[in-house]
Amino acid sequence: MQYVDREPFPSHYGRLRVELDDLAPARWLERDSEGWAGMGTVASVCAPGFEAYARVLHPARLDERPVRWDRVAREYGRTVDGATCWHELIGAADRLYRNHDTPEIPGVWDEHPEEGPTPADVATALLPVLAAHTRTPERCWYGLWDGYGHLDWRGAPVFHTPGREEVLLSGPLADVASPAVRPHGAPPELPDLWWPEDRAWCVGGDVDLVSTYVGGTAECVDALLAVPGIEAHRVTGSAAVD
Q1: pLDDT by residue (tens digit) across 216-238?
Q2: What is the tally of structural domains in the chain?
Q3: Cα separation of 167 and 160, whole Å?
Q4: pTM (2 decimals)?
Q5: Do 144 and 223 belong together in one domain?
Q6: 77-93 residue pLDDT tens
């Protein structure tokens, strides 16, 4: 019996192939994540062992247009760095701010940053740098949490990361933002994890976070921090996530 209002999982998620036979490309994440207890650190969301890490902030919105955190921060007389939490930035009491009446600032922002995997516009801005820092941009792997509500993933094999079970997908890096729009016009959920065949970097996000994390070489992270279309900060693998 299927879950009510869930569709059976497809052979492709957007243009990404759903891998049903061999999860070997993801086993390094299970092995390397041993010792990183549960969620809570950059390395547990992304992957441990990289030379450098970046935190990419999901933008707030104004009339559906992206708004940088540092733009919002100026209105509150605050600043933004790699450890800034959104709820603290806007003066909310805790991380349950979505359940409270947190007033937006007219003309500055009217929608909280998107929780979950990397927003499509942010993912698209990351692609040129990530493609330039791998030898295998045409051969990439992706992890999609099997708990997203619109597809019934029962029967699909999964690999394990701290606190999550992930379905393995594959395809070129350029197709990461290709998943079809969900029913009723809701935004598509991009994969939580992305990494190339050569493991030169790893991108990680989570359903509960308003940031995406990237592990890679120092050169790759430096390049990400310089991309005009994203707001990113250098962090460590042991830093807390938000």
Answers
A1: 999 999 999 999 889 999 999 99
A2: 2
A3: 9
A4: 0.92
A5: yes
A6: 999 999 999 999 998 87
